[in-house]
Specification:
alpha+beta, seven-stranded mixed sheet, six-stranded antiparallel sheet
């Protein structure tokens, strides 16, 4: 048996135990003996090389036996990738809030710890993202599975973010967004996106408004729709307006000027027969509006998310965007 054996404990992509010897060779767990010692075989054992090298560790991870019978070349970069993945995975597990994790920062810290043999960031980026996603709760498979309460329904300032949910709709609007809606509701820009909507839903519907004092658009609500029923849209606008009225001390919001690139006649006929839409116009000669405000924001979200994002990851991103808007205001 070799002297000075350096052992690093790692794990495979499937979560199985993985041993790395002297930063040169990788061993996968094979089986556990009655005395609780574990046998690990070289990762080349199941390949054409049929490498017979093995290592036996006791329950304290001390080496009982090491047979170095490697009949293949050492591939140091493969070993370094495994080490880097494991170290990054452990750092991610320490953080209970996935969206607070900065992948590149973790990689840089691990790189400095490992030294020159650390692989490039692009080599293990996808693995890092997968490990971050694993920190979220199990993904929602259907609209009925969406919980009524969740720690993810709180903003960064620990305020309620989810204001309404029924079998067809869930609405997110922070107190800050409701305040903006209530004070700048003269022109509300609305649009939906299918790309950034979770798989189980029909559409992600977003309303925004223009805050003239700061020359900026602010998102005022985000809703996930199960379908395109008329009643779903009617409920959506009713609940948003009702929530925003909580932030008005004198007069209540009655009519709203919505701006959207839908054809007014088509949308009213199919979705908003009972809803009082005072004006439906793409531009209305608004000087600052050079493109549809909601469409541009939807495109921005589409670039952030992969097609059909995970429910909790979507909510976390939306909260992050809400907090940025709050800090800019």
């Amino acid at each position: 048996m070799e002297d000075n054996i350096e052992i690093e404990i790692s794990e495979t992509n499937r979560g199985n135990e993985h041993i790395i010897i002297n930063k040169k060779h990788k061993f996968n767990f094979s089986f556990q003996r009655k005395d609780k010692s574990k046998i690990y075989r070289c990762t080349e054992y199941m390949t054409l090389n049929k490498c017979k090298s093995l290592i036996i560790l006791n329950d304290k991870k001390e080496v009982l036996k090491y047979e170095s019978l490697h009949n293949h070349l050492e591939i140091e970069i493969d070993v370094s990738i495994s080490v880097a993945k494991h170290k990054i995975k452990e750092e991610i597990k320490k953080n209970s809030i996935p969206m607070d994790i900065k992948p590149k920062h973790i990689f840089n810290a691990v790189s400095q710890e490992m030294g020159l043999i650390c692989p490039e960031y692009s080599t293990i980026r996808s693995q890092i993202i997968r490990n971050i996603n694993k920190q979220f709760p199990p993904n929602i498979k259907s609209f009925d599975d969406i919980p009524i309460e969740s720690k993810y329904y709180k903003t960064k300032r620990n305020e309620n973010f989810m204001i309404f949910k029924n079998t067809d709709l869930i609405i997110f609007q922070s107190p800050f967004q409701a305040y903006i809606f209530s004070n700048y509701h003269k022109n509300i820009f609305a649009d939906g996106t299918f790309y950034a909507a979770p798989k189980f839903s029909y559409q992600l519907f977003i309303t925004r408004t223009y805050v003239g004092e700061f020359n900026v658009f602010c998102t005022t609500s985000i809703s996930i729709l199960k379908n395109k029923k008329q009643s779903t849209y009617e409920t959506l606008f009713k609940e948003i307006k009702k929530n925003a009225n909580k932030f008005r001390s004198n007069t209540l919001i009655t009519t709203i000027n919505f701006h959207c690139d839908f054809e007014q006649e088509y949308f009213n006929k199919n979705y908003l027969l009972k809803y009082n839409v005072n004006n439906w116009n793409y531009y209305e000669n608004i000087e600052h509006l050079k493109n549809n405000a909601s469409e541009s924001y939807n495109s921005y979200l589409n670039n952030i998310f992969p097609n059909k994002p995970l429910f909790y990851k979507l909510i976390d991103i939306l909260k992050e965007e809400e907090n940025l808007s709050y800090n800019d205001y």
